[in-house]
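User: quick one, fold this
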Amino acid sequence: MVGIFRKSKELEDMLEKQMELNGQIGDKLKIAERSLSEYQRFLDFIDEKVEKNGWQLCGIKKHKDDEYIAYFLESKLEEEPQYRYNYNIYAYLSSNLDTSAYKAYLGWCFKERFTVGRVLHIDNHYVTSESLQGQGIGTESMNIIKSLAKQLQCDGIQGTREALNYTATEEERKIEEEKLYKFYEKQGFIQSREHRGIFLPLKKSVREKFLKNEENKE
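Assistant:
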């Protein structure tokens, strides 16, 4: 009898462990199903932006863990008051499709209809949330801007180094300004702490000419 009870107890323990294992497998399947559903929603979102909005998909990158980020390019031509292509870059995280994680507004101007614009202007660009800063979104977006400028055969990229948090204290603005300076320095931009203008030459000859002009100004 003792042997029968021992075997019965062993069987109960085995069944209990198997039920626990089945529960764990079930939880993992639910997580996997939820992830697949989120990925499909992300892909549908990308299709909608490309097909309905006419945006160009610049790339999809793994952001962190099971989160992805998609980069889009929107272009529009304005003929008044000058010929100008407006290029807008947007980045969206798969975990938040309602609000973009990054925005950039660029301009490629022409004096006349068939002349070639030599400089791509960064009118404005920023990571939309402070919590997303320092995660490589701005760097990846700047790579897209550089690639666009090269495709347009521009001599360089021009912009203004400006902190966008206008409600910050003077000390906070100085800290943010320093972060921006280091960011553009890492990206290869020529800049000065005394002036907010930034310039990235895309050709060696242009860099040498620009630096010579700056020396003459001094």
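User: anything notable?
Assistant: The longest strand covers residues 67-78.
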